[in-house]
């Protein structure tokens, strides 16, 4: 099972849902993201939010369409995204994709990226990606990983989101690295590319943000 979470970020940055659908996909709406799903003809299995970003008329539609509606007060310690992601992780999915989490407010974007770190710290094996029309991003803990070719998102950047990432090596990349120490704030690993087939990246310490992009 794969869970797709749809938040209420700018609609123009959210890919068409049919591109990420399938028999084993469960769609979940977050705040205005619930309405995005409904207007696209996708019925969410569950919905989360304080729903302060939808109109009264839209809320009536949501209440009629979604049986598993988890409504919260605006005054709470977690964001709607965190509540939905925590629920998704408890379902033991093979993977989680998050849409509508970029664009708009930068504090929300930064918080959403940081939310990807918590499952790693709790040793979750679930792969989580944030996806928009121009980017795919995810975080990794120390280890060795494969980067598959993707003509749509050919640029690959590597950014530490801990004080540093140590022992970073890149193979089969246009700009290879061997056992490098990358401190936070470094732009050394921005906008790399695979040169043939798949590539590998590995590192020994820290947490790495991987961003695949297109112009």
Write the layout of secondary structure elements.
Layout: E1 2-6, E2 25-30, H1 32-39, E3 46-49, H2 56-65, E4 69-71, H3 80-90, E5 95-99, H4 106-115, H5 117-121, E6 127-131, E7 135-140, E8 143-147, E9 155-160, E10 164-171, E11 177-183, E12 192-193, E13 199-203, E14 208-213
Parallel strand pairs: 1-2, 1-5, 2-3, 3-4, 5-6
Antiparallel strand pairs: 6-7, 7-14, 8-13, 9-12, 9-14, 10-11, 10-13
Report on the architecture of this protein.
The protein contains five helices and 14 strands. By secondary structure, the chain is an alpha/beta fold. It folds into two domains: 2-133, Rossmann fold; 140-213, Rossmann fold, CATH 3.40.50. It has a ten-stranded mixed β-sheet, with helices on both faces. The chain has a four-stranded antiparallel β-sheet with strand order 8-13-10-11, with no helix packed on it. Strand 3, helix 2 (56-65) and strand 4 form a beta-alpha-beta unit. The two termini are 31 Å apart.
Briefly characterize the structure.
Helix content is 20%, strand content 34%.
Keywords:
single chain, 215 residues, alpha/beta, Rossmann fold, four-stranded antiparallel β-sheet, 20% helix, elongated
Strand content: 25-35%
CATH architecture of the largest domain: 3-Layer(aba) Sandwich
Query: What's the number of domains?
Result: 2
Structural class by secondary-structure content: alpha/beta
- In CATH, the topology of the largest domain is named Rossmann fold
Determine and state the CATH class of the largest domain.
Alpha Beta
Overall mean pLDDT stands at: 94
What kind of sheet is the major sheet? Answer: 10 strands, mixed
Order of helices and strands: EEHEHEHEHHEEEEEEEEE
Total helical elements: 5
- Span between N and C termini? 31 Å
Number of strands: 14
Q: State the share of residues found in helices, binned by percent.
A: 10-25%
Order of strands, main sheet, comes to 4-3-2-1-5-6-7-14-9-12
């Amino acid at each position: 099972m794969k869970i797709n979470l749809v938040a209420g970020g700018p609609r123009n940055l959210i890919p068409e849902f049919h591109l990420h659908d399938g028999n084993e996909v469960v769609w979940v709406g977050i705040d205005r993201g619930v309405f995005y799903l409904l207007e696209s003809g996708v019925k969410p299995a569950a919905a989360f939010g304080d729903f302060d970003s939808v109109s009264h008329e839209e809320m009536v539609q949501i209440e009629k369409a979604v049986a598993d509606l988890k409504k919260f007060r605006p005054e709470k310690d977690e964001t709607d995204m965190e509540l939905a992601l925590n629920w998704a992780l408890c379902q033991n999915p093979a993977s989680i994709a998050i849409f509508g989490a970029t664009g708009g407010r930068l504090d929300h974007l930064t918080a959403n990226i940081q939310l990807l770190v918590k499952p790693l710290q709790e040793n979750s094996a679930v792969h989580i990606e944030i996806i928009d029309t121009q980017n795919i991003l995810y975080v990794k803990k120390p280890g060795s990983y494969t980067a598959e070719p993707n003509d749509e998102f050919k640029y690959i950047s590597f950014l530490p989101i801990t004080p540093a990432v140590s022992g970073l090596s890149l193979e089969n990349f246009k700009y290879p690295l061997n056992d490098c120490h990358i401190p936070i704030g470094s732009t050394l690993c921005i906008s790399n590319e695979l040169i043939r087939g798949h590539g590998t990246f590995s590192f020994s310490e820290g947490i790495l943000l991987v961003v695949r992009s297109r112009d």
